[in-house]
Amino acid sequence: MSSPDVIVVGAGVLGLCTAAELGARGHAVTVLDPGAPNASAAAAGMIAPAMESLIDQLTPAHAALLARGRDLWPAFADRSGLELHREGAEWRGPDPEADLSRLADLGFAAELRSDGVFTPDDWRVDAVESLSLLSSVPGLTRQTAQVTAIRRESEEWLLQAEDGRKWLAPTVVVATGAAAALPGLPESLERVISAIRPIRGQLTPIRCQRPAQVVRVPGLYAAPSGDGALAGATMEFDNRSTLPDAEAARRQTEGVLALLGCEGVAREPRVGIRGASADGLPMAGPTAEPGLHLALAPRRNGWLLGPMVGRIVADGIEGRASLPDAPALDPLRFA
User: Fold this and answer.
1) Which pTM does this prediction carry?
2) Does residue 269 belong to any structural domain of this protein?
3) Environment class of residue 212 by beta-carbon count within 10 Å: exposed (0-12), middle (13-18) or buried (19+)?
4) 61, 126, 177, 250: which is deepest, by most CB within 10 A?
5) Are residues 205 and 169 in the same domain?
């Protein structure tokens, strides 16, 4: 039986950012990866507080929180060996003047360009590459395991996988995305986790002319990738199917090629199920159960808020004062 300092259940961006933060602080961390399709890999890795605030018409307070989440990225990326791309992003909407004014009101830098509005305040990482790099940071061990039971034993948590393997640790971080609550969790936490709303997202990689930066229009984006663009993204609430939708892939491909004015060839779509809380912010931090912490439900801002969630959870585990935004992400706000 393995006995690390911390067990993180889930290997998406929130789980791995939390594990990387804990590893950097000297903790021995085991990440249990269920091996299912990962929503964090079916993403363009956008760290986009400006565009998310504009598109979702967020309040100034919510937009400012996203901006502070982005500001944690440079130090986190340097420490974790991730490449942070800061090309900015372009929005092509029906009213560029209004969009420019809205971004300015929210505190984001922006300028009018011939095709729309450009902001330097949105960045990105390569999602698939970053997940791989985060899995290999010092102090972290990643194992493939489907956890089928969790229970409190004395001062520790016992987790068991479907193949009979067991782990024992004083601290567990539940980072299971939009999946069902782990069997054996206290009923109060099961209710909180069961209230997370699933959102199906599909992204289609295209081999084509690579855009200089992320380009977004209503209902569609084109993000740079190694040999072309990533076309996204769908938002289908309460849909848990991970099967690719051929018609959606066709629309994404045709839309992005028209947007970029080039020809290209679509590749196999990626599908992931994101989780969203009632207020659209993650649940990050300690629960009422000793040694049990959550890193869940970032909606489509998992990459943007990964370092913030990781830091808040790690601070909660160590019992230290955390970021000013920690109360807004407190899992107990829904208890």
Assistant:
1) 0.96
2) yes
3) exposed
4) 177
5) no
